[in-house]
Q: What sequence folds into this?
């Protein structure tokens, strides 16, 4: 297991089969993103557009977990403690509507690092009272089409406020592109988490380089 470092958040790629362009391959996209220099990968495969059933999802995730280990890039599972434990993931990311953060910490806090989504000051202040969280995912900074249940957009001003309040590293999430990544970094966020910007990029190497600045 990789121990958490704030540098992991610099170019944080979130992707599942539902995020790909038609007829593309998740192994190709994640493999190329790793080669291009992403600093973390979150396996988030869910929803009606997912191409996998439960058994297939585990096999795919296991293969991607091994691929991440080859590059020494943390493999993070979205919102599924059972899957994260079975894969011996480096980390797990939890949303506000997912399993209670205190429960996740009690289940896996000694086995992997934990990230928590916080979209407003109330959520972040509450999270600051909880021991065992490694980082926050804050946003959506911009409008996003990748999450149907996304919270209201907070903009870079809202992100700046959350970064100032936080005593833990923040990765910005939601609608971030290569054109806005620099503005996002200027808020003090340690990096950006993106989905379609890499998953649907015609040139993953160039996209990752521009995201990293």
A:
């Amino acid at each position: 297991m990789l121990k958490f470092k704030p540098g992991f958040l610099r170019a944080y790629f979130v992707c599942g089969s539902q995020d790909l362009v038609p007829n593309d391959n998740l192994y190709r996209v994640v493999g190329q993103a790793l080669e291009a220099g992403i600093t973390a990968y979150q396996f988030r495969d869910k929803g009606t557009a997912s191409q996998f059933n439960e058994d297939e999802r585990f096999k795919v995730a296991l293969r991607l977990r091994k691929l991440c280990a080859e590059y020494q890039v943390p493999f993070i599972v979205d919102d599924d403690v059972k899957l994260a434990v079975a894969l011996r993931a480096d980390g797990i990311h939890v949303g506000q509507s997912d399993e209670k953060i205190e429960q996740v910490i009690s289940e896996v806090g000694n086995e992997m690092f934990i990230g928590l989504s916080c979209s407003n000051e109330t959520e972040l202040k509450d999270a600051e009272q909880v021991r065992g969280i490694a980082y926050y995912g804050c946003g959506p900074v911009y409008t996003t089409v990748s999450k149907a249940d996304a919270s209201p957009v907070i903009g870079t001003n809202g992100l700046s406020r959350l970064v100032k309040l936080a005593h833990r590293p923040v990765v910005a999430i939601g609608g971030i592109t290569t054109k806005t990544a620099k503005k996002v970094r200027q808020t003090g966020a340690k990096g950006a988490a993106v989905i379609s910007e890499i998953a649907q990029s015609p040139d993953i190497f160039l996209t990752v380089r521009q995201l990293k600045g």
User: Anything to note?
Assistant: The first strand starts at residue 11 and ends at 15. The longest helix spans residues 54-71. Residues 119 and 176 are 15 Å apart (CA to CA). The chain has a mean pLDDT of 95.
